[in-house]
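Revision sheet: structure tokens.
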Amino acid sequence: MKTTPEHNERVAKMTFASVFPHYISKVESKGRTKEELLQVITWLTGFDEKKLQELIDEKANFEIFFDKADLNPNAGLITGLICGYRIEEIENPVTRKVRYLDKLVDELAKGKKMDKILRVG
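Predicted:
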């Protein structure tokens, strides 16, 4: 499934602040914690909790969010399907990074072990 320019634009302009509460609800409803979610986001982006809060307060969209991120060098190991898209085939860099984050949140909610989620060893 290929993303369209309109889809990519919509994803890039979506604010992290609008999605973050949904991430929290999703993982907590499955018995995981906000702290685990923050660990996953920090692993992917390099942001600590203070920086995340600044980006939320600024209402940074995903384009800005990932522009400021120091993406983990192992992020490319995040593969598979998310929202009907095969992550490794997404050409738009911002959309691909958002789907990386979505996939990590999914794995956390599904009960995967943290070392697997964080692509350790």
